[in-house]
Amino acid sequence: MISLTDEKWQQIKQVNKKVNAGIRYTSEAVDSWNVILELNGDSPGDCDDYASTKRQLLIDLGFDWRDLRLATCWTKHDRDEWKNYHLVLIVDTDKGKLVLDNAWDDIDHMEDRKYLFHKIQDFTSVTGWRECDIV
Questions:
Q1: Per-residue pLDDT tens digits for 68-103
Q2: What percent of the chain is modeled with pLDDT above 90?
Q3: Which class for 133: exposed (0-12), middle (13-18), buried (19 or more C-beta within 10 A)?
Q4: Bridge partners (DSSP) listed for residue 23
Q5: Where does the pLDDT of residue 15 fall: very low under 50, low under 70, confident under 90, or very high at 90 and above?
Q6: Is the pLDDT of residue 20 over 90?
Q7: Mean pLDDT across the chain, nearest whole number?
Q8: How far is residue 45 from each of residues 53, 72, 100, 103, measured CA to CA in Å?
């Protein structure tokens, strides 16, 4: 668990904003999870590329990889229907689990994000994933 100092908070916010601005959202016909190193605003990618890139940049800044987990979720784009399957980065801090999302520059606590969380990375699991306990 990351101790969320002012410095760490600023780094998290900067990485989230930099990656969100640096990748042009493009739906992929064949899904591939890439770390995009050229963040020029025209590099194509979808939600998994944003999340993987944010994770790698935070690791490069010295964050512990075990505190940076990918999570799948369903998002609502209509009033009553869960429509899009989505991937976000969860940062586990002493102030809660933070959601870094390509759809929002704001960073929310996981329980405050209006998503239906499905699975989250679990580095102790044989599959590497487990069901989320936050809806």
A1: 999 999 887 666 666 788 999 999 999 999 999 998
A2: 56
A3: exposed
A4: 43
A5: very high
A6: yes
A7: 89
A8: 10, 17, 16, 13
| Residue 23 pLDDT greater than 90, yes or no | yes
Q: Are the C-beta atoms of residues 71 and 59 closer than 8 Å to each other?
A: no
| DSSP per position, the chain | -B---HHHHHHHHHHHHHHHHHEEE---SS---------SS-EEE-HHHHHHHHHHHHHHTT--GGGEEEEEEEEESSSS-EEEEEEEEEEEETTEEEEEETTEEEEEEGGGS--EEEEEE-TTSSSSEEE-S--
Residues in the chain: 135
Burial category of 129 from C-beta neighbours within 10 Å (exposed 0-12, middle 13-18, buried 19 and up): middle
